[in-house]
Design brief:
By secondary structure, the protein is an all-beta fold. It has no helices and seven strands. The chain has a single domain (13-110), classed as Immunoglobulins (Immunoglobulin-like), CATH 2.60.40.10. The strands form two sheets. It has a four-stranded antiparallel beta sheet, with no helix packed on it. Strand 1 and strand 2 (24-30) form a beta hairpin. The protein is elongated and about 55 Å long.
Length: 112
Amino acid sequence: MSSSASPAPGPIRIRARQRAGEGVTELVFLMPHPMETGLRKNPAGGFVPAHFISELRVSVQGRTVFEARLTAAVSRDPLLSLRFRGAQAGDRVTVDWLDTQGNRRSDSGLIV
């Protein structure tokens, strides 16, 4: 994902924790975003332009652990969770997204 226009307001809220003795990291993150489908009409009767997160990447210490292409079917302010192996407490998790209008957002947090 290369850089482009300014991101939507609000940081990605990230919570990551290592499950004791299991070697599994649980990650939950909230991405503030309007996620407009392009099907809703405005008060004047015209359609509100589509504006949704289309690409998503999660990495740990620079290693990609999850990638997805999203569609207009995802609700406003998506909350996602996933589990993965191969990380440790203290590692940095980064969530990056790109939306259909070229906006980007990248935030990170530590695994506890």
